[in-house]
Amino acid sequence: MERRNFLKLGITGAFGMAITASDLLWRVEQAKADEAHPAPTQSLTPDAALQKLMEGNQRFIDHHLQHPDQSALRLQEVAQVQHPFATILSCADSRVPAEIVFDQGIGDIFDVRIAGNIATHEAIGSIEYAVVLLGSPLLMVMGHERCGAVTAAVKKESLPGDISTFVQAIKPALKKVKDQPGDAVENGVVANVQYQIERLHKSKLLTEQVESGKLRIVGGRYDLDTGRVNIIT
């Protein structure tokens, strides 16, 4: 986005709030960085971004990793500006690192990780930032096999401290599959991804991007045993 477009915002920011002089200065400096470093991913359509992501996952499964965008040159390319081609809301589980399972590098994925891949207000705000201000054309909510957070919610376990908060955030999803046949945890993993996507669709900013064709929101399920990510509709 060019600097003049930021200046046209006047006293109103991208999120409909009054902005201070320091906010405006930050936007101008960001615009300067964008002009100096054109965004190669801005030309990617949402569908092309998804294809790029899934091709990386296939390389991971096949053990034919390319380790793209991990050089010293890439480090310098994104030092001042970022344009991630995908945003992923995933579980904080240590076995589900997005850059590795999708064979991507620095500046490629905007990671939002939280136990149970739940769409909290803070997570939604982070995603809105990536989509609206950084231009990320793809958003994936990715759950995973044998998710501990979902398991705790299914078993209705009593957990100490704030650990119980993400369990509470998953429970509404379980109501939709309460009487569904099959493994309760597996059903819950899929239902939770779908439920969190529903929450994301309540964001006006994200909905506007989807309706304009600039953003695609998909669900994913990561298999801990095979490394494969399957798309959830």
Describe this structure in words.
By secondary structure, this protein is an alpha/beta fold. Helix content is 46%, strand content 12%. It has ten helices and five strands; from the N terminus they run ααααβαβαβααααββ. It has helices at residues 3-7, 21-36, 46-62, 72-77, 98-101, 121-133, 148-155, 163-175, 184-200, 204-211; strands at 86-90, 109-113, 138-144, 216-222, 229-232. Helix 8 (163-175) packs across helix 9 (184-200). The longest helix has 17 residues, at 46-62. The radius of gyration is 19 Å and the shape is globular. The model is unreliable at 1-19 and 31-39 (pLDDT under 50).
Q: What does this entry show, briefly?
A:
With 233 residues, this protein is of the alpha/beta class. 46% of the residues lie in helices and 12% in strands.
Q: Which blocks of ≥5 consecutive residues have pLDDT under 50?
A: 1-19, 31-39
What is the SS-derived class?
alpha/beta
Report Rg: 19 Å
How confident is the prediction overall: mean pLDDT? 88
What proportion of the residues is helical, as a percent range?
40-55%
Count of DSSP E strands?
A: 5
> Strand-residue fraction?
5-15%
**What string, H for helix and E for strand, traces the elements in order?**
HHHHEHEHEHHHHEE
* Cα-to-Cα separation, first versus last residue: 32 Å
**Strand sequence of the main sheet, in spatial order?**
2-1-3-4-5
- The rough form would be described as globular
Largest β-sheet summary: 5 strands, mixed
Number of DSSP helical runs: 10
